[in-house]
Amino acid sequence: MKKFVGITKCPVGIAHTYMAAEKLQKAGEAQGYEVKIETQGASGVEDELSAQDVADADFVIIAADVAVDGEERFNGKQVLYAKTADAIKDANALIERALTAGIYGQKQTTVAQSDQQESHEQSPIIKQLLNGVSHMIPFVVVGGLFIALSIAIGGHPTKAGMVIPPNTIWSSMNQIGAIGFTLMIPILAGYIAYAISGRAALAPAMIGAMVANNTDILGTKAGTGFIGAIIVGFAAGYLVKWFNSWPVPKDLRPVMPIFVIPLLGVGIISAVLILVLGAPISWLMTALQDMLTALSKNPETSIVLGLVIGAMVAVDMGGPVNKVAFLFGVASITAGHPQIMGAVACAVAVPPLALGVATFVRRDLYTEEEKSAGIPAILMGLIGITEGAIPFATANPKQVFPSIIASSAVASAVGMIFKITDAVPHGGPIVGVLGATNNIGLFFISILSGVAVAVALLTIFKVRKARKTA
User: Fold this and answer.
1) What is the pLDDT of residue 189?
2) What are the catalytic residues?
3) What share of the chain is helix, strand, coil (3-state, %, to 5)?
């Protein structure tokens, strides 16, 4: 029997990862293949491919938006590289392309193989950045929730703001949350570097990121924040990649990754930060935070900022543009002005919620497949997973994309008008229920305003299409 195997992996490791795997599985089985797809998601590796699975496979499909683990096991096999969105949109086309894919570990020779190599290597910087973001997210989510819950339950209002009494369980919870936020910086830098040059880059990147945010070491008034972490991650990754290219004697190779490379990497990165880059990056980060704060406080500019952020969240539903908006939100939390994250939190839930609700408002306008996807979309919207809208967007992009982009922009702008804040780098009604927002009622109104706009637009588009067809 014909067989192929594959790996799927997205930055967050939730929706795209499993949806791509499901699409490949169904498409392959429909074409008469035996299929096994390994998912490298937030829960770790599932359905891991054995050596026998790989040996028996006719070809391999890697549908991933970030670096995958264990590529070297496919040496000598035909390997097709694609994005998770490609698998979700048209898995059958990927299977056809995989039949002429290049051989892993060999120089590409044919035109098709050359195109495949180019596809694999496109936007490496985005993939490396998203690898860092995907590993960072659990730390900031846990940190933000612990801080939000400790303030909501154990805090007392004073003239100076909410104060948590010392030596209480809530004080300990608040400190644990702060540890999560502190770890965000080295984790982001470390896994950007890891995606570039592997495990040896972790120490230079993670220690370098901590140096970049230590004002005593840098001699600055502020740390370099997530911008410094990103710069350090890329610098450490490519520095270690250069170290790995050195013609080292065979006897010295074992000590390079555990002694020489970390020592040289940490020394060089730290020296550059202290002597050259630390102060300018610190100034840039401070200026960015001041700009975000000023924009969010001015009524006119806050609405425009909200519209832009909301549109960015919806335009690629969890992709690179979405992650840029997310990073702005994280920056606002760490700077003590979490209103940007509040706008993001309002926007992320709207696409899946709206599409799910729309299937119940006018069920006659939707296919059976879309109706069955409605409830899962609503559930994903409730927990802030924008990717729940992907099945609808891939089926009807001309109708769905304008609707969700406009509606997310509206929800985000309304959130800015209401001055919604979010102490957790996540969104959807779930963060309001957990007490991470400053006003749960206005937060829900912001989300519902976006949902109403999307449902109205989708219904109009669907009715027009139905009339044209008739």
Assistant:
1) 94
2) 10
3) 70, 10, 20
